[in-house]
Amino acid sequence: MMLEGKVAVVTGSGGGVGREIAIHMALAGAKVIINDIGASLSGEGQSATPAQQTKQIIEQRGGQAEISTDSVASWDSAGKIVQSALDHFGRIDIVVNNAGILRDQIFHRMSPEEWDSVIGVHLNGSFYMSRHAATHFRKQESGAYVHITSTSGLIGNFGQANYSAAKLGIVALSKSIALDMKRYNVRSNCLAPFAWSRMTSSIPAETPEQKARVEKIMRMGPEKNAPLAVFLASDAAREVSGQVFGPRMNELFLFSQSRPIRSIHSADGWTPEKIAEIALPALRPSFMPLDRSGEVLSWDPV
């Protein structure tokens, strides 16, 4: 019961990784607001059924949960989600920013709408939810954020410029929250899930290589990500903030963050020609390759 007495809001918890996090937080003693608008993977349509199914599972296992079907993608509706925790349970201690949609498209064909809609849910939604909760976290001088990022942003992927930008932006948002709110005993961390869910079901599986990759991902259930989320939200992680983690089957990763990896100095300064002649050959061996996440994490999950 690591979350006994705490109240958690888990966005996008009508299915997949979000549902498993909500269930496990309830099993750990938290009272949970299940937030999900019940839309399709592309953000279309709306139904309370997914959230109701999560609530039923939690209550069948002896937990407490209520439902919010408001969207994270606008300031006012995100405020209603946070307020629902106060209305139902009297406080808020944990925010899990998990809600998301996909509009996969190769970059040179991506429309402004495909860009804006993904940024709106993932990045803006994470800010709106976090900012509304911050008012209450400051007053009580405690609180924990768990933001869901992705290796599409941390490493890279094809056809996901909008999603990748949003997910890497969430890492920067989390680090800023961790820095700004440390004085209030508020922590902020990121979790990059590895799981087969709606968010990964759109991965192409046409070539033999693609099919093999999808088969690996399908073996990774969304429930494998929940224990880390519970830990990061608990008082056991009181000294953990500003970090990026990834659970992959029975592996746990701590991801690096951007730091200088090589430097050279010229006492007379640099010209473009001098950079081409001296700096480029010196720095080139340390260039990062154009990898995708599946190429960096190439071994089979066990």
Compute the number of structural domains: 1
Largest sheet properties? 8 strands, mixed
CATH topology: Rossmann fold
Mean pLDDT: 93
Helical content class: 40-55%
The spatial strand order of the largest sheet comes to: 3-2-1-4-5-6-7-8
Structural class: alpha/beta
Straight-line N-to-C gap: 27 Å
Portion in beta strands: 5-15%
What ranges have pLDDT less than 50 throughout 5 or more consecutive residues?
none
Work out the number of β strands. 8
SSE string: EHEHEHEHEHHEHHEEHH
Q: Given the structure, what is the number of helices?
A: 10
Global morphology: globular
Q: Determine and state the CATH class.
A: Alpha Beta
Rg (CA only) = 20 Å
Question: CATH superfamily, called what?
Answer: NAD(P)-binding Rossmann-like Domain
Give me the CATH architecture, please: 3-Layer(aba) Sandwich
Kindly summarize this structure in a few lines.
The protein is an alpha/beta fold and 302 residues long. The chain contains ten helices and eight strands.
